[in-house]
Write a structure and sequence with these properties.
single chain, 292 residues, alpha+beta, Jelly Rolls, four-stranded antiparallel beta sheet, 14 strands, globular
């Protein structure tokens, strides 16, 4: 078995690739969708997966979640339970694209790439890192209110994008994601513990921000995605239902982003010195503007 990060292209036929610009146009968002994202900070209800792709990803999720997997050492992070509450569980990992063929290839899903290209301002799309978030039935833990870029200041400039896609239906009952519309315009806030107290971020808000803090739930069918701005305040409550809530996250940035540190950007990844472009084996170019 090999480290799949050595392959900067799809390695299966799970996500057929467009052959022409006209093929890519099939996946384009409307101008209204892009405008909504820019104004509100998020865009939801984008179909990324069919039933076969969902089932394949579920199967491979079960395999990579096993700490005894022979390529387990390739994870950048792996938390069987990252929750700070001993009575709840939040499985969270980074780096499974290096281990699973399906999760490797979902990064090149054309429905994801065209949307990412448009929402990044028609720029080239480069891979940052992936995540898995799994909340088991009855006792799945919270993901506290946060902004993604508050954990990513080791990369500049801020031209990042997050895509969250469920492998189960995501509902209020089983812990769907919540957004605070317009909060991407608040600037960079203090960084709370991701799996700590749900309301920890609120102590860093101004009175005006607290007044505007009106979260909305984003319920999605399995296979549908939501995209959000790197400063969008978001989080999710515990899973109190009798159904699991499994999801994967794809994080990308515009081509040209550079390192802002002389330390590791991700565990196990060779250092990219401060000021140097983010590229190479672990940050492949996924989409070039000339394809659109």
């Amino acid at each position: 078995m090999k480290d799949l990060s050595n392959y900067p292209h799809p390695i299966t036929d799970l996500f057929p690739q467009p052959k022409s610009r006209q093929d890519w146009d099939h996946y384009r968002l409307s101008n209204e969708q892009v405008e909504f994202f820019n104004e509100q900070g998020y865009l939801s209800g984008i179909k990324l997966l069919d039933e076969k792709q969902i089932e394949t990803l579920k199967k491979e999720l079960e395999e990579v979640a096993d700490p005894k997997h022979q390529l387990h050492h390739l994870f950048h992070e792996f938390h069987s339970n990252e929750s700070s509450d001993p009575d709840t569980v939040l499985f969270h990992s980074l780096g499974h694209w290096r281990i699973s063929k399906a999760f490797h290839d979902v990064i090149w899903n054309p429905a994801f790439l065209m949307a990412a290209h448009q929402l990044l301002g028609e720029k080239g799309v480069r891979f940052w890192h992936d995540q898995l978030f799994c909340k088991p039935a009855h006792h799945g833990g919270v993901v506290a209110w946060h902004q993604d870029y508050s954990y990513w200041t080791r990369t500049v400039e801020m031209q990042h994008l997050t895509c969250w896609c469920g492998l189960d239906d995501a509902t209020i009952e089983n812990g769907c994601i919540y957004y605070v519309p317009g909060s991407h315009k608040w600037g960079l806030l203090q960084k709370p513990s991701l799996a700590g107290q749900m309301e920890g971020l609120l102590e860093f808000l101004t009175p005006e921000q607290k007044e505007a803090f009106k979260p909305i739930p984003v319920e999605l069918k399995a296979g549908y995605a939501t995209f959000h701005h790197p400063l969008m305040v978001h989080g999710s409550y515990e899973n109190k239902s009798n159904r699991s809530r499994r999801a994967f996250v794809l994080n990308v940035f515009a081509d040209g982003t550079v390192s802002n540190t002389d330390e590791e950007l991700l565990k196990g990844v060779p250092v990219i010195s401060k000021g140097n472009k983010m590229e190479g084996q672990f940050f492949p170019l996924l989409f070039s503007p000339n394809l659109a």
